[in-house]
Amino acid sequence: MFLYNLGIHLFNIAIRIASLFNPKAKQWIKGRKKWKPKLIEQVKTLQLENAIWLHAASLGEFEQGKPVIEEIKKQFPHQKLILTFFSPSGYEIQKHYPLADLVLYLPIDTAPNAKKFLDIIKPSLAIFVKYEFWLNYLAELKQQEIPTFLISTVIKRHQPFFKWYGWNFRKSIHTYHSIYTQDVYSLRLLKLLNYHKGILAGDTRFDRVLQICSSPKQLTEIEQFTKNSFVIVAGSSWAKDEEILIETYLRLKDKYTSLKLIIAPHEIEKKNIDRLTNLLHKYRLAFHLFSRNEPQINDSILIINAIGFLSSIYQYGTIALIGGGFNNGIHNILEPTVYGLPVLFGPNYHKFNEAHQILDLKAGFVFQNAYDLEIQIQQFISNKEYLSEASVLAKNYVQKNSGATQKIMEGIRVYL
Description:
Elements: H1 2-18, H2 23-30, H3 35-46, E1 52-56, H4 59-75, E2 81-85, H5 88-94, E3 102-105, H6 111-121, E4 125-129, H7 135-143, E5 148-153, H8 167-173, E6 178-181, H9 184-192, E7 198-200, H10 204-214, H11 220-226, E8 230-237, H12 239-252, E9 259-265, H13 270-282, E10 288-289, E11 301-303, H14 310-313, E12 319-322, H15 334-337, E13 343-345, H16 353-360, E14 364-366, H17 370-382, H18 384-400, H19 404-412
Parallel strand pairs: 1-2, 1-4, 2-3, 4-5, 5-6, 6-7, 8-9, 8-12, 9-11, 10-11, 12-13, 13-14
Helix pairs in contact: 3-6, 4-10, 4-19, 6-7, 12-13, 12-17
């Protein structure tokens, strides 16, 4: 544990230095200040002892945990729940999440913090989402005999469990009463690590997108904008995605006059939106900003410069371009596929199981450049049967992979 604790200590120092000039690092530090007296008061006031504790690293992991939270509250409406985040991007957006009785930052993973945190909240059980292996918290959970579960996880060969320095991580796996995996391969790797309480459940994100799809936000102005049009929704796009998309659009717009773009950038701060609008100005392309909130959109390009709409906007699209494939990896492809949108993305998709699966089904397609993208879009526009088949395959893919939440509930219900 020495190397692990040293790493935690060095990380804490580094983020404090970064907080002097990085806003997110500053939020990370500020959100954890004087956490002990605050938490003692909150637990006492809200009567939160014996609550369920669910931890998500960030917003993406929260989305995976959310169907389980909702099912717990549905079956046990009086059950209290504490939700913690590691990163500001999760906490700042979900700090008022109504189904959690308390939302807070997870104190940094030191042995004293872990003991004090658990002594204060005294959870009836703990649920971690996907990749969470905080060794001091897991050791203290085991010490206090608190049932602990890991859900929607993916185990891979490159993770610390399989490294020479990974002994403590291998040991930490046995803290979990059950580990619910997304795939069979993860289950096999757990067995190699001598862990035999793994359960193949699937990914709760499938359940989550089905929930969203069942009651999406109705956006009248976008419905009118997309009517009788072939609409490409660029979701969580980065600069390279946008440059390729706009180059492709310039080649196709005169030939296909019904072609429209909805671009929802991954980052919506002013600097990034200005970069995108300057790119459109460069090519003399008219566009409309969603934040103008006007009832009618007359341009053929709509920029979504607001948070919380993308998952519902997909319902108005024809196909989706998923951002991140030229950066660290693609973003969520399930949000558009649940509506039956075939998905297009850049080459950096290999660490995402669902990307491989959707490619195998021929409901997803990779592009390297504007020429690739142009060819694929033209196929969709000119061949309605081809588009329809890909659409059905995309939608069925989500339906067939749903049900993880119920499998997880079967395991944790006995502890509630």
